[in-house]
Sequence to fold (247 residues):
Amino acid sequence: MTSASTPIRIAPSLLSADFARLGEEVTAVIAAGADMIHFDVMDNHYVPNLTIGPLVCEAIKPYAVRNGVPVPIDVHLMVKPVDALIPMFIKAGASIISFHPEASEHVDRSIQLIKAGGAKAGLVLNPATPLNVLDHVIEALDLVLIMSVNPGFGGQSFIESALPKIALLRERIDRTGRQIWLEVDGGVKPANAARIAAAGADTLVAGSAVFTGGLAGGVYAQAIDALRSQALSGQSQARQNLLSQAR
Ligand code: DX5
Ligand code: ZN
Fold:
């Protein structure tokens, strides 16, 4: 389980933002408390949908800032092949780049390419992808992203089998003794954030849960606060359960 000091990071997914006003959307979610900006790249090949690329990442980069300090842009590549886009996203200002192992010919090489460019490297596991794809590479990773929907679209329902997988991954990450972030993406809402964090996640992606009210609605802070407070209460409940088992 996550330790008492584990922060919860909330990463709003721009997939559900107003694409005609992306700069304003980034400014608004950062003002509302977002810890990172989740940037979904889909290629109409690895996944059926087609979204945004390095040019858009570069265009939003100046908006991804709080009090003069850059807010990380968390690029989730749902593309195949992977490697050609890595230097382009590094040049465009990505702070974290994650990819799906099925989409890369050489997973270790893709990780090394990301790290050589100075970004943090993440591997993304689809609902049916087993944790053993992490064998031999987990030590090189900064982040593991568990998909709790099949990738390609926002607004889908959370797949419950992600929860035991998150718990197993938490145990595995803790065994490495390294600070590897455990991110969860897909169908994350205030109603399930406590269970997701209790299972061991520390970074929650949320698209529709944050952006549904729209820029004019002024409820981004409410949504982000609800996700964070639910997640924190899930973490502390999990700790209490462990303590009562230990006594
Ligand atoms: C799905 C994307 C997600 C998506 C999440 O393939 O990777 O980041 O935007 O959207 P919600 O939170 O609405 O499920
Ligand atoms: Zn995503």
